[in-house]
Each structure stands twice: as structure tokens, then as C-alpha cells.
Amino acid sequence: MARALPPTSSGAPQPRPATAPAAPGAPQVRPATEGWQQKKDAEGRPLLQFASPKRGKPPEHLADLTPEQRIEKAKELGLPGFRAGQIERHYLTRWTSDPAEMTDLPASGREELVAGLLPPLLTEVRRLDTDKGDTIKFLWKLHDGALVESVLMRYPGRITLCVSSQAGCGMNCPFCATGQAGLTRNMSAAEIVDQVVRANQVIARGELGGKRSTDQSLERVSNIVFMGMGEPLANYARVMQAVRVMTDKKHGMGMSARGITVSTVGLVPAITKLAAEDIPVTFALSLHAPDDELRDELIPVNSRWKVDEALDAARGYFERTGRRVSIEYALIKDMNDHPWRADLLAQKLNARGRGWVHVNPIPLNPTPGSIWTASEPGVQYEFVRRLNAAGIPTTLRDTRGTEIDGACGQLVATEDDRAAASAS
Ligand code: SF4
User: Fold this and answer.
1) Is 320 in the same domain as 395?
2) Which end of the chain lies in a sparser environment, N or C, as judged by fewer CB atoms within 10 Å?
3) How is the cofactor bound (predicted)?
4) Ligand 1 pocket, 105 CB below 6 A?
5) Domain span at residue 91?
């Protein structure tokens, strides 16, 4: 792993580079789908789907509601409003939705209250884990049969959950397993939150491996990354409600906003909106290419908002929140890993000031024989070295989860998953 250089101190914007320099030497592999056909619009461009198809709504749940609405709901169910607070604590801090465990609630009406506020949302269909058990991928079935996944990972000093925000995805990226089937529907805020609650239950039961035997501490998910299925900013309102529930100290899970990473392929107006929220989450832009020519093909939403617009919005996020932005960059052999692209990326980031951004290259999962495969280690090293040398803190991320197809761009329901879901 490359050592990240500290950011330099000057915040003064540098002159903007004009265009990409000519590429010397290395071959240029162009993005193309393998084994499936990208849906195209009338002009032959990859289809982008922003609106969620109309489907039956998931049942309304406590985590979809504001604290005031929860009180109203308890009253509608014929109980005093303060009972809503008790249920809230059971579900969001003790991770239970079992009425039998809520002994501080009167027995009469307890079942009805719990059924009204905590309807079941996720059915576990399948679980895959790594040898050491420190990474678990869950496949969940939603009320309408839609399938989503989350991945739980133990790292030294933290436990991270990668959550899904949509069933499927409408952004149609040609390298991405999730995007192939298009967008099934937006997930509700409670369906997003329930992934965290369910993961915390698994941790509490001691089912996540890798814990040191001497460690007696009570554990829970400490970090959340919105890098599972879906484009979170295409489901903005529900994702923000979920983030509020996760971070609310009085009526929610009390998590640190800094430990929550909202990632996007570059929906510029939504990035600006996110910056104006009073919740300093960590913001990550999945850039994957510094030049429009390649990014138009690699990330179809680039046809709507170009590299410079996405970077300006990311810089705006930093200015508004003071939170350093992450640039995610999957390193793909001979496609986007050229030294000149590292230099162009560094130029574009430095042109917007210093100390505001961190780059996380992640080698794509090795896929022998595919055009979508990991860069050579020497190429990865050189890419990282050039960015660091230009004063951009850059750290190669690990590819945890690759052995169970739990890494970014790999979350997709397979035929096996669908068969298991229909049997469950
Ligand atoms: S890479 Fe992300 S934005 Fe692109 S299709 Fe996949 S899930 Fe959607």
C-alpha cells in the first residue's frame, strides 16, 4: 500500500489545465459490456434511468418517520405518544423488533404497536462469508421480492457496512454487475436503515469473525458506506432520511456523520444539495477517469454532467462543509491507468486548490481474459506515486470482499440468488 503524502498547505487555486495531453505508448482499451447489452436511448447513448419505476410501496416503518410522526403514529394506534420513544430505542439502539423483549411496554397493545411501527422489511435469503468470517455478504429479499445486498467487514478498530440504496441501478455503467438489470426501484429509508440494524444483530450474536479473543468490548457497525447496489443520490430524500436516523443522537442510532460515506458517480445538482444539508457526511465521487472522452463511455452519467462539473461540485462540498472529499478511482488495466491520466487527474485537482481532496485508487477485481481487469501492480504503484508526487494524498484501497463478489460493482442478484429467494 502506498504511503499518502500530507496535503500541502496553500489553498490558492492553480490555473486549470486545458485538455488531456496526448497519450504516449500504452494501449488504450475502450469500455464495452461483456455478455450483456447496454440499453440505449433513441440517440444510441446508454440509457439513464433516474425515476424509480412505480411498484407497491414497502410498508411504512418507524425509520421512515420523523420523531413527531412516530408520536402521531403511536397515538393513531391508541397508545400514548411517549411509547413511540420506547420502541425507537429498542429498535435503533438495542436492535430488536421482538415484542417479547420490550418488557417496559405494557403487554396489552404491545404486539399491535410493534406491528404498526416495526413491520418486517428484509428477509435474509443467503449469507456468504470469507474464510476468517471477517467479511459477510447478505442477500436480502424485500416485501415485493426485489433483491438487494449488503456487505459487513471487520477492519482493525472499525466495522464497516456497505449498504444498498436502490434495488438495481439506473446509471448503466458498463463494468457494473448491478447496473445490468436497470433500476427495479428506490429503497425506502427504513429498508436502508434495517440493513444496519440487522448487521448489528449479527455482530451482537458474535457471528462476525475476526474479533480478538481478549476484546470484551460491545461492538456495532461504526462506519457506513453507500457503495452497495444503487446510486444513492438518485434516491436522495430517502437516503437523507436514513442518514438522519443513523446520526440522530436523541431519536436515532447516534452514529458519527463522519463515519458515513455517501458516494456518487456525479449527480451534480444533488451534490450541491448534499453540501447544503447540515450533516457533515464523508463525500466520495466515483470518478474513474479524468478525461471526458473516456468517462463518457465508462460512466454514462458523464454525458449529463462532465468531469469538470463533477469536480467543481466536489470542491464545493469541501468549501461548504470543510470535509475533505474522496475521489474513488477503479484502476482498470490499459483503460484508465495510464501515467498521463494520473498526471491529468492531479492537475485537475490541484487546479481547484490544495488540501481538499484525497484519492483512493482501487484495483478492479482481477478477471482473467476480460477487458475489465486489474491494473498490473507496477502500474498501480506508478499511478499512486505520480499523484502523491504532485501533492495529492493518495492511498491504494484494499479489495476486501472480492472473493465473495462483495466488492463495488459486483453486487448483483444471480440466478442462484433468485432461486434461493423464491424458496425462502
Ligand atoms: S457502478 Fe454504481 S452507479 Fe454505476 S451502475 Fe453500478 S451501482 Fe450504478
Assistant:
1) yes
2) N
3) Binds 1 [4Fe-4S] cluster. The cluster is coordinated with 3 cysteines and an exchangeable S-adenosyl-L-methionine.
4) no
5) 65-117
Last residue of a domain, one of 117, 138, 153: 117
Question: Of 30, 139, 66, which is closest to residue 424 (Cα–Cα)?
Answer: 139
In 183-306, which ranges are continuous DSSP H helix? 189-204, 236-247, 268-276, 292-298
CATH assignment of the domain containing 81: 1.10.150
Q: Which of 334, 294, 289 is nearest to 28 (CA)?
A: 334
Q: Among 82, 117, 152, which residue terminates a domain? A: 117
User: Of 292, 364, 360, whose CA–CA distance to 334 is shortest?
Assistant: 364
> Has 287 been labeled as part of a binding site?
yes
How far CA 182 is from CA of 38, 176, 186, 218, 291, in Å, comes to 9, 11, 12, 39, 26
Separation of alpha carbons 244 and 193, rounded Å: 10
Residues 266 and 183 in one domain: yes
337 and 290 fall within a common domain: yes
Query: Angle at which helices 67-76 and 82-93 pack, to 10 degrees?
Result: 120
Q: Is 121 exposed, middle or buried (0-12, 13-18, 19+ CB in 10 A)?
A: buried
Asked whether residue 104 falls in the same domain as residue 180, the answer is no
Averaged pLDDT in 10-residue chunks for the chain of 424 residues: 26 39 72 91 92 90 97 92 95 96 90 94 94 91 95 92 95 87 95 98 94 85 94 97 98 97 96 95 96 96 97 98 95 96 98 97 84 93 98 86 47 55 62
In a domain, 315, yes or no: yes
Number of domains in the chain: 2
Q: Which three cell numbers stand for residue 89?
A: 430505542
Which pLDDT value is given to residue 120?
Answer: 97
Strand partners, 263: 284
How would you class 333 by CB atoms within 10 Å of its CB: exposed for 0-12, middle for 13-18, buried for 19 or more? buried
- Tell me the three state secondary structure of residue 144: coil
Any atom of ligand 1 within 6 Å of the Cβ of 231: yes
Which residue, judged by its Cα, is nearest atom 4 of ligand 1? Answer: 173
